[in-house]
Write a structure and sequence with these properties.
CATH class of the largest domain: Alpha Beta
Number of strands: 8
Number of helices: 13
Bound molecules: S-adenosylmethionine
CATH architecture of the largest domain: 3-Layer(aba) Sandwich
Largest sheet: 8 strands, mixed
Order of helices and strands: HEHHEHEHHHHHEHEHEHEEH
Strand content: 5-15%
Mean pLDDT: 83
CATH topology of the largest domain: Rossmann fold
Number of domains: 2
Low-confidence stretches: 1-35
Length: about 325
Amino acid sequence: MIGEGFEKGEDLSRGRYVQSIAHISKSMKRNLSMNNHDYPAVKPFLRWAGGKSKLVKTLVDFVPPSNSYDRYFEPFVGAGALFFHIGPSKAVLSDLNTDLINCYQQVAKHPEEVWNLLQVHREFNNKEYYYHIRSQKPEELKPIEQAARFIYLNKAAFNGIYRVNRQGVFNVPYGPSFKGPALPKKSLLEAVSDLLGRANLLAADYQEVCESAKRDDFIYLDPPYPPTNGTACFTHYTADRFNWDDQREVSKVFRNLDRKGCLVMMSNSDRKEIRSMFQGYYMQRLNVTRWLGSNGDRFKVHEIVVTNYNPREVRNGDQ
Ligand SMILES: C[S@@+](CC[C@H](N)C(=O)[O-])C[C@H]1O[C@@H](n2cnc3c(N)ncnc32)[C@H](O)[C@@H]1O
C-alpha cells in the first residue's frame, strides 16, 4: 500500500534520520500493522477550495493505522476529506471558520432537520433566490437555519468556492447549473452525522487546538496554501489571510507536536520555502498537480506530504 504511494512520487528525503521517531511510544509501535479505517469511508458533503477529496486515496497511505494513535486531530478541517475517509473513533476537528463548524455541529445533532430545510432551498433555487439567501445575515438566523444556508450557498455558488471578503462576508456569485445544486442526500447527512457525533467540533485557531494535543495523538495539518505570487492568496476561507509568516508558524507548531511525541502529517504545496521549513522530516512529493484559484487566475501546484515518521515503516510496523 505505502509502497504504491512512494513509487508514485519522488521521495525527497528518503533514508534521512528523523530524530522524532525516538519520541513515538512503545504502545504506538506495538500496534502499527492494523488497517486505518474505523468506520466505512464517507464522502465529504461540502465543496472546499484546497479540499483533499481527489487526493484522499493517495494521502491515506501516509496515515498511521488507527490503532497506533489515540485521537485524530484535524485543525484545518475544511470539508474534512481525510477525516470522512478514515472515520476515526475519537477525533478533534476544528477550523477558524465559525459558519463551517456550526454547520458540522448542526448536522451532527439534527441531520434530518437540516435535510428538511435543504428541500426548501432546493424547491425555490434560482438566481434571485440565491442572492436573497446570500444577503441574509447569518447571525439573525437560528443555528440550524445557518447550517442549511451554508450548505445551500456552498452547492449553488459558482464553482463551489467558499470565499469571504475582508469583512468576513460570503461573496461568491451564483453558479447556475442544469440539474440544480447538488445538495446532499438524507442518507449522506445521516452517515456524516454518525461520524461527526464522535468528534469534538471546535471553531478555533489551529495553534490553540494543537496545544491540547498529547503524546500518541495523530495530527493532520492541512493549512491554506502559501501565496502563489507575491502576497496574492487564492483561498479566502476567513477574513484573515494566511501568509508566509503563518506558514512559518505552522512549521513551529509541527516541531512542537513532534517534541511532544505526537504523530504529525502535513499537506502543502511543494515549494522550496516549505521544504526548507521542514528540513529533517520525511517529505514526499505526490505525483499530482492541482489548479488553484478562481476568476481565470489559476496556478498549477505540486503537492507535498511531510511526516515526522517514516510512513513506510509505520505501515509495516517495523520501527
Ligand atoms: C486547505 S483547507 C483544508 C481542506 C481540508 N483538508 C479538506 O479536505 O477539505 C484549509 C482550512 O484552514 C482553515 N483556516 C485558515 N486559517 C486557519 C487558522 N488560523 N486556524 C484554523 N483554521 C484555519 C480554512 O478555513 C480552511 O478550511
